[in-house]
Amino acid sequence: MKVIFIDVDGTLLTYENVLPPSATVAIRTARKNGHKVYICTGRSRAEVYDYIWDIGLDGMIGGNGSYVEADGKVIMHQVISPEDAKHIVDWLHGRGLEFYLESNAGLFASENFETRGESTIQEYSYRKGKVGAKMITVRDAFPEMIFGEKNLYRDDLNKVSFVLDSYQDYLDAAKEFPHLKVGTWGGAGETALFGDIGVANIDKAHAIDVLLKYLGADRKDTIAFGDAKIDIPMFEYCAIGVAVGSGGDEIKAVADFVTDAVADDGIYNAFKKLGLI
User: Fold this and answer.
1) Are 128 and 111 contacting, i.e. CB atoms less than 8 angstroms apart?
2) pLDDT for 9-19, tens place per residue?
3) What are the residues whose beta carbons fall under 8 Å from the beta carbon of 153, sequence distance 6 or more?
4) 3-class DSSP state for residue 81?
5) Do the Cβ atoms of 244 and 13 come closer than 8 Å?
6) Residue 151: CB partners within 8 Å, gap ≥ 6?
7) Could you count the other beta carbons within 10 Å of the beta carbon of residue 124?
């Protein structure tokens, strides 16, 4: 039995959020053959929509390692403390930055995120090559996002993402929250579009280790699929790391091999090459 971990955005799904039918076939066939398949994603559970679960999965790692679920049970869940959550919300409000809170209960938008976030989401979609990117709304990008929430102080946060008015916003956030994990996404360095703040000392590798102990499985039987720098820790941890052809150069450099692009049946072809199907 192999234990397989697949990143979602840009790996299981294309950058346009399209799920290739061949990937569904590959995962379902591999599970019939006795292997276990988990998604390993930056998404919170609320962002794993039914069409992803309907593929057939044994569970998930979410929040880039803060959440582990297997067989319908929560194995691990590390959240931002209520005190830190309040500090983050107050600090972002004080700087006039719009944001959304990521929890397993849903995505909660700040007061003006829908309007301020639209141009940033459009730019993010444009960079990903999405057709009609300049027409995309925040509600298109986040179909189940919750707007108008009165109380933004929560005790169940995996992460907070915020729109960067400038790269300095990220640098200042890193100084303000040195005990938390502060990063960026939507571009490297000063081209980044969003900042994010989450629990420190977590990554996909640590979460995989927790899950393997729960399963009683061996690290030598693990296979990871990814497309980006955030996936490097799980590639370094797992026995085999497979980068999709549509992924970035940094992840390809540490992969054991590179499969085809997501839209060109990369997952299916890799599963076949590895003897999983």
Assistant:
1) no
2) 889 998 778 89
3) 82, 85, 86, 89
4) coil
5) no
6) none
7) 20
CA triple 206-225-180, angle to 5 deg: 35
Question: What is the model's pLDDT at position 134?
Answer: 92
The pTM of the full predicted model, rounded to 2 decimals, is 0.84
Cα 214 to Cα 45, 79, 110, 114: the distances in Å are 19, 20, 37, 40
SS3 assignment, position 71: coil
Given a contact cutoff of 8 angstroms between Cβ atoms, the answer to whether 65 and 204 are in contact is yes
Angle subtended at Cα 97 by Cα 91 and Cα 100, rounded to the nearest 5 degrees: 90
**Close Cβ partners of 266 (under 8 Å, ≥ 6 residues apart):** 244, 245, 246, 259, 260
Burial class (CB in 10 A: 0-12, 13-18, 19+), 167: middle
40-99 pLDDT, tens digit per residue, is 998 889 889 999 999 999 999 998 899 999 999 999 999 999 999 999 999 999 999 999
Contact call for residues 4 and 225 (beta carbons, < 8 A): yes
**CB-CB contact of 47 with 107 (8 Å):** yes
